[in-house]
Amino acid sequence: MKIEINGQTREVDENASIETIVAELGVEGKVAACALNARVVKRESWADSTLKEGDRLELLAFVGGGAFGVLL
Question: pTM higher than 0.90, yes or no?
Answer without folding.
Answer: no
